[in-house]
Amino acid sequence: MPFAATDDKATVSPNPARTPLLTAPGPALDAINAPVRGARLLLEALVREGVDTIFGYPGGAVLHIYDELVHMAPRLRHVLARHEQGAIHMAEGYSKATGKVGVVLVTSGPGATNTVTGIANAYMDSTPLVIITGQVPRKMIGTDAFQEVDTVGITRSCVKHNYLVRDVRDLGPIVHEAFHLARSGRPGPVVIDIPKDVSAAQTSYSRLKNITFPCVETNLPPDPSVVQTAATAILQAKRPVLYVGGGVVNSGAAHALRLLAEQLQLPVTPTLMGLGGFPSAHPLCLNMLGMHGTFAANMAVAESDLLIAIGVRFDDRVTGKLATFAPNARVIHIDIDPANVGKNRAPDISLIADARGAIEALHAEILMRKAETPQNLKTREQWWTTIRAWQREQPLRFTGSRDQIKPQSVIRALHRLTGGSGLIVTDVGQHQMWAAQFYPFSGVRQWITSGGLGAMGFGIPAAIGAQLARPGELVVAIVGDGGFQMTNQELIVAMQYELPVKVLIMNNGYLGMVRQWQEMFYERTYSEVDLSVSPDFVKLAEAYGALGIRATKPEELEDVLAKGLSYEGVAVMDVAISKEENVFPIVPAGGNSRDMIVGI
Ligand SMILES: Cc1ncc(C[n+]2csc(CCOP(=O)(O)OP(=O)(O)O)c2C)c(N)n1
């Protein structure tokens, strides 16, 4: 374990690139009676929140905090990213891989602004993060001081909450409140902006027993009368579909969902963020719906008479044209975030509750009404006959090739070689969709991707954060040649901390997804999507000290993947895929899911 090695000198491996983390253990704050700097109080409060890892990048406004950091080992470790965007995506990967709150520490001005993409990403994908930003000293705020930006203003629209700490005595309560907010209800990012003089100010640590929260988010138990109404609707439906999203993953509802679906033989379609929330290979799973969803999933939704939407937000990549989405269906919408319900599609029945609690309550209610079930299952048989016909008519498929490596076959080979148990992290683009379509996921937190924001550059740092969180597991970052060039500098972080991520570049020499849209919707006018001038990725990997290998022909694919995946350190597999391959099916943006183009 790389980090265990850091804390135990006897097991440090002889990696010359490796930088020791924090080495000077300090006393726990409880042992200190004297007043401490705000900086120290902040770090102690993090430890009290169960944090053992933070991702960051230092600078002037956080110097006091970094000065105190050296006293926090081995209780708190710091991972030095190479760009603040890298730090925040690492924290997101760490959080998505564990369900824990990811923590980021950056300086004021550019340090803070470099995290904004990740903050927006975490907000869209409900990832709990606490982002600590340095700020210029209080008396300089508003003077256009060096490295001053209005972090609270800039991040306001993409955080659950943000704070500017004006008094060091507020710091402890704010930290604890921020963690509470980040992880409660619909999880998300919370920013704490700390002026330099606040982190320098002396204060006494209190045990912070009596924190009161100005806005309390409770995980409400499901309303029993709504549960009854929803159960009746489900039992009466002839063509029901379970449409499940990231909320199922976040709330740990996968098992409950499976029991409910199996009990009533309900077809299940996960969103991109819901992948893994229901096993892809399960006979009830129709696989992903939406723009690049399966024909059967989209048809089932289009024909359904009841959509049971759980932990989803009726995103436009799922619905296409809202007016024609599931036009004949009544909708039950279950979500913990009331703001999500009715935002895009008005539900017939809404249940504001944690997904797991709601599913369990629904299942219990349905079990109580056992007598109603048999007849109901009979109706389901007809529905399933129709669905199976759609699946046979238009399965996910692609044309093979003798001389070109087909991207879909790369994902299939990856699935085979990882035994289906890889922790798959992706960047954004065609490769992301092929991975979502062709890698069957068997469990939650096996799939990490940038969904709502679609932030290129997410893949590599998120994989590093995930590998750090789950050290013994095989973590594969699937990236395009475009996204790889956005954040590959973070590979040196993987080298430094001995995090053996495997990077699979699906290299088509294009900004593939944009090229596909230009081909299909702009009469093949390719405008600024050609990436044929790129670095030699194998040499680049070697420059980092990683293994770099390449496959250009189909017969090389299996060997290259096998070698890269079994390599003990960081490996970069540069796979040249067919250049103008398209992702199918595709529902044109804003289109009707019945107008899906199935391709071949
Ligand atoms: C930061 C950012 N900039 C631009 C885009 C728009 N965009 C979406 S997919 C894509 C192409 C991605 O190309 P590549 O990384 O090579 O992956 P591919 O689609 O070829 O698999 C672009 C530019 C984006 N999603 N994120």
Task: List key phrases describing it.
six-stranded parallel beta sheet, binds thiamine diphosphate, disordered N terminus, 38% helix, 600 residues, alpha/beta
What can you tell me about this protein's structure?
Helix content is 38%, strand content 15%. By secondary structure, it is an alpha/beta fold. Strand 18 (547-551), helix 24 and strand 19 form a beta-alpha-beta unit. Helix 2 (38-48) runs parallel beside helix 8 and helix 4 crosses helix 19 (459-469). The longest helix has 21 residues, at 373-393. It is globular, with a radius of gyration of 25 Å. The protein starts with a helix and ends in a 24-residue tail after the last strand. The relative contact order is 0.11. Bound molecules: thiamine diphosphate.
Blueprint (SSEs and pairs):
Blueprint: H1 2-7, E1 36-37, H2 38-48, E2 53-57, H3 63-69, E3 77-80, H4 84-98, E4 102-106, H5 110-113, H6 116-124, E5 129-135, H7 151-155, E6 161-164, H8 168-183, E7 189-195, H9 196-200, E8 202-203, H10 224-236, E9 240-244, H11 246-250, H12 254-264, E10 268-270, H13 295-303, E11 306-310, H14 316-319, E12 330-335, E13 349-352, H15 355-368, H16 373-393, H17 407-417, E14 423-426, H18 430-438, E15 447-448, H19 459-469, E16 475-480, H20 481-487, H21 491-496, E17 502-507, H22 512-521, H23 537-544, E18 547-551, H24 554-566, E19 571-576
Parallel strand pairs: 2-3, 2-4, 4-5, 5-7, 6-7, 9-10, 9-11, 11-12, 12-13, 14-15, 14-16, 16-17, 17-19, 18-19
Antiparallel strand pairs: 1-8
Bound molecules: thiamine diphosphate.
